[in-house]
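quick q for whoever's on today - can somebody do inverse folding on this one?? i tried earlier but teh output was garbage lol. tokens:
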């Protein structure tokens, strides 16, 4: 299976279906939030992905990609960043329609601080493992080293908001992660891409899917879902307005 064929069959078609189900009810704020996440995904993921390909953590079958490469990465991979973001965003929008917003939200500074500190400690651990750990930890450690810093401002800004919307957040994360992990099985068996056994810890699902791939889908989907929730929830507006009133300086949500 070519990488383009994979994107068409397993990513683009589900996006089309979700768009038909939800696209007409999605307004400008939703699509603005999706666009923001697409731009962030391209900017933030590109250096990390180029490093993985350059160090052969993962690699592509040259017969199954177009050969158009930017840096070390084929153009199909950049397309995947964009399409995964749209897919997760549309699923978030569809899921959000199934949950009525509770009006009993109570801001909780303690939740934000605890979540921030826990994420920071986890990042420090995997930063150490990336630089000084066993080679088999490379893929897992660099993925958390890369992903967790982007999660830190989300925790500091709105961990209590995310907890308030935990049912929405959980469903919006788990379904895309499960789906993308299953489609990854198809790509791995078709050798569309491959993962280095020497740079993974060796825990495989169905005998072929490394746990690191699931972690990748889990973390990237978390970033998208957390971001969409924090950008579009009613509870975020007062904090955004407070930050804007201070010319986006400091942390007005932590008085």
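ok took a stab at it. sequence:
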């Amino acid at each position: 299976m070519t990488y383009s064929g994979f994107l068409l069959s397993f990513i683009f078609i589900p996006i089309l279906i979700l768009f038909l189900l939800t696209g007409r009810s999605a307004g400008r704020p939703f699509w603005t939030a999706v666009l923001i996440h697409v731009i962030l995904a391209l900017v933030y993921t590109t250096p990390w992905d180029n490093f993985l390909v350059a160090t052969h953590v993962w690699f592509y079958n040259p017969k199954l990609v177009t050969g158009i490469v930017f840096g070390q990465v084929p153009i199909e991979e950049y397309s995947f960043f964009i399409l995964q973001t749209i897919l997760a965003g549309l699923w978030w929008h569809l899921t959000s329609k199934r949950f009525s917003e509770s009006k009993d939200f109570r801001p909780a500074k303690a939740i934000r601080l605890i979540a921030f500190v826990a994420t920071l400690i986890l990042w420090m651990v995997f930063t150490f493992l990336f630089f000084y750990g066993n080679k088999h930890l490379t893929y897992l450690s660099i993925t958390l080293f890369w992903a967790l810093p982007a999660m830190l401002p989300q925790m500091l800004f709105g961990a209590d908001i995310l907890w308030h919307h935990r049912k929405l957040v959980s469903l919006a994360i788990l379904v895309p992660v499960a789906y993308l992990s299953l489609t990854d099985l198809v790509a791995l068996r078709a050798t569309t891409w491959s993962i280095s056994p020497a740079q993974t810890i060796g825990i495989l699902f169905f005998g072929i899917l490394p746990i690191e791939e699931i972690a990748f889908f889990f973390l990237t989907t978390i970033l998208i879902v957390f971001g969409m929730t924090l950008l579009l929830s009613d509870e975020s507006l007062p904090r955004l307005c407070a930050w804007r009133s201070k010319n986006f300086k400091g942390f007005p949500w932590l008085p």
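fwiw The helical segments are 3-22, 28-54, 75-96, 109-132, 138-164, 166-189, 211-232, 237-245. also The two ends are 54 Å apart (CA to CA). so keep that in mind when u check it
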